Amino acid sequence: MHIAVVGTGYVGLVSGTCFAEFGMNVTCVDLDKDKIKRLRKGEIPIFEPGLEDLLKKQIKTNRIAFTTDLEDAVKKSDVVFIAVGTPPNSNGDGQADLSYVREAAKQIALAMDGYTVIVTKSTVPVGTAQEIEKVIRDARPNGDFDVASNPEFLREGAAVNDFMRPDRVIIGTSSERARKVLQEIYRPLFLNETPIVFTKRETAEIIKYAANAFLATKITFINEIADLCEMAGGDVQVVAKALGLDGRISPKFLHAGPGYGGSCFPKDTLALAQTGQKFEARQRIVETVVAVNTERRERMAQRIIKACGGSVSGKRIGILGIAFKPNTDDVREAPSLSIIPILQDGGAKIVAYDPAAMEQAKRHLTRIDWKNDPYQVADKADALVIITEWNEFRALDIEKIGALMKEKILVDLRNIYKISEMEDTGFHYVSIGRPDVKPEIVHLKKVSAAS
Fold first, then answer.
1. What residues pair up with 349 in beta bridges, in sequence order?
2. For residue 65, what are the β-bridge partners?
3. For residue range 162-176, what is the model confidence (pLDDT) as tens digits?
């Protein structure tokens, strides 16, 4: 079976490579000629553990190819996956911009030869599959095709494993013919007894948004509980652990921090809220989640300023981690992109390091003194702030860090250090939803000569 994947962004490239690993013949299509040249050499334009090695393996087996010729790729394919971007509209209303999806559908319609299953991999609002079908039918009234929905659930930093060993696969189609074709594509997962959920296209489209909105809600919920813990003297990590032991809740996404970011949660929660308003079924919980998460970044910046005595004017603030999460170079909607400008507006000089995201960050942040490791960042810093929980930040030589710093202030927005570990370090240690650790100041009484 031959597959075409239109779009070689995060979703398209991971999906195409993994479909090739399943044994399919895959052609990935993109308009960016330079990107296609790099991909043909096995060079990936994103940071994703394990993907480059897997891609090079598939290139050697000739099961994957890259082209800018959409017409040729579609003509020889049984199934075409649409994996183009669906960013928020430029007018700021939060709705997904479907212009790339519509254009892809139109071009596919003009190119397809014989029965073709067109599948949306892109994250799209409910009703998009129906819209795609209309676009294709208008262009090819007698075309032999079906449109299906197959949303992705790939976590950046773990995408290959998520594709190869998913919790479930969602396929939205009312066509038995299309169902059989997609069953064959996902046959390796059937053999692994992966749950495959077949449903209507509209239901599949809603599932994607609902899943991301629910996880975003869990993050926002625990962040608000962290605020309560701070005011009442509780420990959010113990609260989260206790909640996670409840089988109905699970411990995942119950980690207090500076809020969610990335390419999915921010735009998908906004899109779901807008969809609810469109259908007169307001998603009030999701609307609140969006508002609270936006406010969270300001609160975290103020947390840093407070730790520095109420002002960062003229102070050197070291930042560890720019990406919205570890194991990715993605900085889209990253908390750091909001926190750092607030500190700069307060007069701070920012020095920063991220293991993978600095090149991407340079497109969004200015006036940053970029360093090559955490210790260079700490040198002469008035405060050190952990924004992203990269593994290499979990085992810092705290004594060495303290000796390098001008002031021993550590603001840990990811709670990667234990309170007990920081108590005897001499650091003013600030975390989220837990008591601050302040160095004990001992005032020795003056001893008189008589005594």
1. 316
2. 27
3. 999 999 999 999 999
Cα-Cα-Cα-Cα dihedral of 401, 405, 410, 415, to 10°? -20
Domain ranges of the chain: 2-199, 209-294, 297-430
Residues 267, 256: Cα–Cα separation, whole Å:
21
335 within 8 A of 387, measured Cβ to Cβ = yes
Residue the block writes with tokens 């307001």 = 282
Whether 264 sits among the annotated catalytic residues: the reply is: yes
**pLDDT tens by residue, 247-291:** 999 999 999 999 999 989 999 999 999 999 999 999 999 999 999
CATH code, residues 2-199:
3.40.50.720
Q: Which amino acid is at 92?
A: G
CA distance 350 to 377: 9
> Phi and psi for 120 in degrees, rounded to 5?
-85, 115
Question: Measured at the alpha carbon of residue 378, what is the angle toward residues 372 and 383, in degrees to the nearest 5?
Answer: 135
Q: Looking at domain 209-294, what is its CATH homologous superfamily? A: N-(1-d-carboxylethyl)-l-norvaline Dehydrogenase; domain 2 (1.10.1040.10)
Q: How much is the pTM?
A: 0.92
CA distance linking residue 167 with residue 92, whole number of Å: 33
Q: Which residue is catalytic, options 18, 28, 229, 264?
A: 264
Residue 172 phi, psi (nearest 5): -105, 115
